[in-house]
Amino acid sequence: MNPKEKLLWSIAFPGFGQMLNGKYFKGALFILLEFVINVQSHFNEVIMLSFNGEIEKTFARTEYQWLMFYPCVYFFAMWDAYKDAGGDKEPYAFLPFVSSAYLVTVGLMISSKIKVFGYLLGTVWFPMLCVIPGVVIGILIKNLLRKG
User: Fold this and answer.
1) What is the pLDDT of residue 44?
2) Looking at CB atoms within 10 Å, which of 6, 41, 91, 94 has the fewest?
């Protein structure tokens, strides 16, 4: 499997990419972290509420102190699987992952404060949309640093 395939497996579930890379301890650690954060933050319930359009309930049910860990674990697991599979050949390849983790975390923190998008999208959809500018900003910074 190539690095992009390992990345896609990590997107599906943090730790799977590490398992495919033969890094079983790291893979088990990421799976455990994902499980603990998911349970403690009530993430599956919040996702279900979001899918059912019960956005106000997502704000009340989300355990923000736990859920704020999720983007960092999630994007680090993706980067780690990608890197271990040989996907870090170009300089600053980590930047889209870092900037996405940052913007998703910030998006989660401000999702209940933004009247238009936050109240329409809640604690799941609004942070997920923050991945897009995170990737774009990371790629732009990576390209600027490579030129300089």
Assistant:
1) 95
2) 91
Instruction: Outline where the chain has alpha helix (H).
Output: 3-12, 16-20, 24-41, 43-51, 55-61, 64-67, 69-84, 95-110, 117-129, 131-147
Cβ neighbours of residue 12 under 8 Å, at least 6 residues apart?
none
Q: Phi, psi at residue 33, to the nearest 5°?
A: -60, -45
Q: How much is the pTM?
A: 0.90
Which residue in the block uniquely carries the two structure tokens 């999720």?
70
Amino acid at 147: K
Q: What is d(CA 57, CA 100) in angstroms, rounded to the nearest whole number?
A: 26
Structure tokens belonging to residue 20: 């495919």
Domain encompassing residue 53: 3-147
Q: Walk along the chain (148 residues) in steps of 10 and give the mean pLDDT of each run.
A: 89 94 97 96 95 89 95 96 91 95 95 70 89 97 90
In sequence order, the 6+-apart residues with CB closer than 8 A to the CB of 35 are none
